[in-house]
Amino acid sequence: MKFYYVYILLCADGLTYTGITNNISKRLAEHKNGKITTSFTYKRRPVKLIFQQEFNDVLQAISFEKKIKKWSAKKKIALANGDFDLLQILSECRSASHHKYHPNKD
Length: 106
Known about the structure:
The chain has about 110 residues and is α+β, with helices and mostly antiparallel strands. About 35% of the residues lie in helices and about 20% in strands. It has a 3-stranded antiparallel sheet, sandwiched between helices. Helix 3 (about 75-80) packs antiparallel against helix 4. The longest helix has 12 residues, at about 60-70. The protein is globular.
């Protein structure tokens, strides 16, 4: 059975990088060694693997990667730390137009 990994790297400048691979050790070595000079992480080394999730279905892995790529660095780091309470707080809508700020008037 083939496995796929969605991973998050923490870069030296504090930014995060989210990727997907079927060989986590090889891909991490490529990031750390700067194998691809046009990579987002190339000028942001050293990088540190802070999260990885294994999938046996490539479509599920791709879907998860697309979802968390849109997240803020704070949310990604909360996920990596297993801080699900903070992740919940960071996921809540804080828009002034959000329904919870406008309770129904009876």
